[in-house]
Write a structure and sequence with these properties.
Layout (H helix, E strand, L loop, with lengths): L12 E8 L5 E8 L5 E5 L4 E8 L5 E3 L7 H6 L12 E2 L5 E2 L3 E4 L2 E4 L8 E2 L12 E6 L5 E8 L10 E9 L4 E10 L3 E2 L3 E2 L2 E2 L12 E4 L1 E7 L5 E7 L11 E2 L5 E6 L5 E7 L4 E7 L3 E7 L19 E7 L14 E2 L5 E11 L1
Length: 350
């Protein structure tokens, strides 16, 4: 993108009150700006991205993520028939864990079940519904913000007190970087992800005319409950082979095994706005999900009614149910070791 008047922004970070939680904690909404005009808003509740605005021209920006106008709407969205987790940090374990249980050091751990007989996205009140403490703000050329959450031992029955930090950075190269670190006082498991729903045509549109590519030759085979069987499904010549760009599918909820770390994991392209998003990660997989339906019960930003084709998620992560499959990449986090997850969303006008 060319230099423009956005480079004159004096304050790269702005904050305002976004509401009060039932326990009295005030949630603040922080907006970060870079000198190219990108702005991202994040809040303490769930360390959640609420908006991400990308400049298309000197005078026009597009908000490319789904979200709500109020804290109450975010809270109430977890009571929808299918909670959307708009923009949240998901943990302790993203995705499904079969029967909500796994073996750790030869001990059976039984987690809370919040999806039928299974554990999904960390349980009944996972990281997405927690208050995250503001740790640092950096107002440098690449402004960033860091939140921290301390998960108590046996929260949702996960072992070990765990300290988690997430840093959001917007760079001069038009990137949104998401960095997670975590450590535990006991051996445990972990799998974090960022759960934004993207739409490069704008959050009020649908995604069907956008082009999707995924750097993957195979997905995880799953059963009727979308639980991994332990086998893999080869994608060549299948409808889910996105090694070359195709229109976004109208229904997808699959974990794609990435070919190589830190190469592009996936791309999304809007022919309408000539806007391309490339996703990079150090994680072994990206779970792709199309959705966003709020069942006409909660309005989205700008009074938009979100529906099943409103957005697409790029959940960079380890494999779902990895603790129950020894040949999957390990989700084990040893006491005192440090978990490190890096994901970058890069934006370009083509």
């Amino acid at each position: 993108m060319q230099k423009n008047h956005y480079s004159q922004i004096d304050n790269p970070i702005f904050s305002k009150s976004f509401g009060i939680l039932p326990d009295g904690e005030e949630v603040l909404l922080y907006t970060l700006y870079n000198n190219k005009g990108i702005e991202v808003s994040v809040m303490n509740y769930g360390a959640t991205i609420t908006s991400l605005k990308i400049p298309l021209s000197y005078t026009k920006k597009v908000d490319v993520v789904l979200g709500f106008e109020t804290l109450e709407d975010y809270s109430n969205s977890f009571n929808l028939p299918n909670a959307p987790y708009f923009g949240t940090t998901v943990g302790r374990y993203a995705g499904r864990i079969n029967n909500g249980q796994f073996l750790l050091n030869e001990k059976l751990i039984q987690l809370n079940k919040n999806l039928g007989n299974h554990n999904l996205h960390g349980g009944k009140t996972g990281f997405s519904r927690k208050f995250w403490k503001l740790i640092t703000i950096s107002e440098s050329e690449n402004p960033s913000i860091t939140f921290q959450y301390v998960s108590e031992n046996n929260e949702e029955n996960f072992p070990g007190e765990m300290t988690v930090e997430v840093t959001y950075t917007i760079t001069d190269a038009n990137e949104l970087k998401v960095s997670y670190t975590a450590s535990s006082l006991e051996d445990t498991i972990i799998n974090l992800t960022q759960h934004s729903y993207f739409n490069l045509d704008g959050h009020s549109e649908d995604i069907v005319n956008q082009q999707l590519s995924i750097n993957s030759f195979k997905t995880l085979e799953t059963n009727i409950n979308n639980i991994p069987t332990g086998n893999f499904f080869e994608l060549a010549r299948s409808p889910f082979d996105f090694t070359t760009p195709k229109e976004c599918p109208t229904k997808i909820d699959n974990t794609f095994v990435l070919n190589k770390e830190n190469e592009v994991a996936a791309t999304l392209f809007s022919t309408k706005n000539k806007l391309k998003m490339s996703v990079f990660t150090n994680q072994p997989a990206v779970h792709i999900y199309v959705g966003g339906n709020c069942f006409n019960q909660i309005k989205g930003k700008e009074n938009v009614s979100y529906h099943p084709l409103s957005g697409i998620c790029f959940e960079t992560q380890n494999f779902p149910d990895a603790p129950n499959h020894s040949h999957f990449p390990s989700s084990f986090l040893q006491k005192g070791a440090v978990y490190n997850h890096e994901t970058t969303f890069k934006f370009e006008i083509i």
